[in-house]
Amino acid sequence: MMKFKPNQTRTYDGEGFKRRAACLCFKSEKEDEVLLVSSSRHPDHWIVPGGGMEPEEEPCGAAVRETYEEAGVKGKLGRLLGIFEHNQDRKHRTYVYTLIVTETLEDWEDSVNIGRKRKWFKVDEAIRVLQSHKPDHAEYIRTLTDTCNPNCSPVYNSTNGNTPSAHVSDNTPHYVVCSSGSDLVNR
Known about the structure:
The chain has 187 residues and is an alpha+beta fold. It has helices at 59-71, 109-114, 123-131, 135-147, and strands at 2-5, 8-11, 18-26, 33-38, 46-47, 50-52, 73-86, 92-104, 118-122, 176-179, 184-186.
């Protein structure tokens, strides 16, 4: 299903969720500094770059395109961190990937057109900054630390009742389906 909005086509999946994609952009493979961009609606707030998928667009392609448009960076696309469902005010299903930044543009589409800014944050600082106004974006980053240890094997917090369902090898992506505000579900 598609809905048309000026300058944008919104696509929805079969369950009525708006299809979205985003990237957690990192300075290096250490994944200790993440790039956030200013919100177009609230320029004093920081957000994770991402947006709606175009018709026939794959989630990974949408994530790279949205990151380029909003943050003005290119890089090496990494693993899918999870698919996040947001149900409170609007139904969104967002595919969130990691991206290691290899190129930073001085001027980019959203900086020129709407004055968007970008800034590097330490991971724990980014979670704090996002928690007050974009808790779903803070959850993306928390999932980074909750779902993978350095060998990308599933880990779990004994207080939340989740247990790893299978061993994940170093070269196998770990897919997690998340609902904002709920426990992680291994798939």
